[in-house]
Design brief:
globular, alpha+beta, 15% helix, 8-stranded antiparallel beta barrel
Length: 205
């Protein structure tokens, strides 16, 4: 478990803190996208070198996506490389939230991912499994909810193309989508997705 009260502040933390403050409109100027991407990569490297471990409890809550990178195919060697980073347009509100399951296993819970554009809200939910030693959170969506002007118009189970909820916890992690978290603070979190992109979320509640 990471001690948030430590007096040692890595160089990348102020950069990411300012990025979040600027997105919230708290008076800070926006940091250039290249600088933010560099800070995220530094945070990821530090987590690996220091073998940092976070617990699932530190992820519980609702987080708003504020910065992300795309990915693109490498022309010379093949594979995937990072694309340019960008601040998520405020026209779209993208939230991810985690809640703990009511079970003895503290590493099981639920994920909700929702996108709202104007009066339209799309929300996907499903089970999660957290591997603390790797800071890796595997998940799968099995329910879709859509509302228009605050009124639900669609709510049904879905198949994500992976597994059903009851089979989720028996599936190999390699077959599931996941986030590899490399920085978790009380105010923001950062992770690399299975596809290779980086993302930065800020806490909302």
């Amino acid at each position: 478990m990471v001690d948030f009260t430590s007096t040692t502040t890595p160089d990348f933390v102020p950069v990411l803190s300012q990025t979040v403050a600027a997105y919230r409109g708290q008076g800070s100027p926006r940091t250039g996208a290249e600088v933010v991407v560099k800070a995220l990569l530094q945070a990821e490297k530090a987590a690996k070198q220091q073998r940092l471990n976070y617990n699932f409890e530190s992820l519980v809550g609702q987080w708003r996506l504020c910065f992300a990178t795309g990915t693109k195919k490498a022309r010379e060697r093949g594979g995937i490389v990072l694309g340019k980073g960008f601040y998520v347009p405020k026209l779209a509100t993208i939230h991810i939230s985690f809640s703990a399951a009511v079970t003895p296993d503290a590493n099981k819970g639920e994920i909700a991912n929702q996108v709202q554009v104007g009066p339209v809200l799309l929300k996907l939910t499903g089970p999660t499994q957290y591997l603390g030693k790797k800071n890796l959170l595997a998940f799968d969506f099995n329910h879709m909810f859509i509302s228009l002007f605050g009124r639900g118009v669609y709510s049904r189970p879905i198949r994500s193309g992976k597994v059903q909820a009851e089979d989720f916890y028996t599936q190999p992690i390699a077959k599931l989508p996941f986030f590899a978290f490399f920085l978790i603070t009380e105010d923001f979190i950062a992770a690399r997705g299975r596809g290779g992109g980086l993302a930065l979320w800020m806490r909302e509640n």
